[in-house]
Design brief:
It is a single chain. The protein is an alpha+beta fold and 82 residues long. The protein has a domain of 51 residues. Helix content is 33%, strand content 20%. It has 3 helices and 5 strands; from the N terminus they run βββααββα. The strands form 2 sheets. It has a 3-stranded antiparallel beta sheet. A two-stranded antiparallel sheet has the order 1-2. A hairpin with a 7-residue loop joins strand 1 and strand 2. It is globular, with a radius of gyration of 14 Å.
């Protein structure tokens, strides 16, 4: 299953493909895929203010930078307790 993206280029993203690195804004589905979380977990993260939302009219998007920052801020040392 593929869907076209807006913009001047005619790019296609398959539902199971990674998110293109040149995209600044991500959809909720893409963020869930990157973080490996469920829709309800993502909603809780948004509600707690952990992940800021970019709104364009009724569309809700997430900045790639914010998602990457969240990942960095939540990395552990990988030890037995982390």
């Amino acid at each position: 299953m593929a869907r076209a993206l807006g913009g001047s280029e005619s790019r296609q993203i398959r539902a199971d493909s990674p998110v293109p690195a040149d995209r600044l804004l991500l959809t909720a589905r893409e963020v869930r895929r990157l973080l490996g979380v469920s829709p309800s977990t993502l909603e809780r993260m948004i509600g707690r203010g952990e992940l800021p939302v970019v709104r364009a009219d009724r569309l809700r998007r997430f900045s790639r930078e914010s998602v990457e920052r969240w990942i960095r801020d939540h990395e552990t040392g990988g030890g037995a307790n982390g």
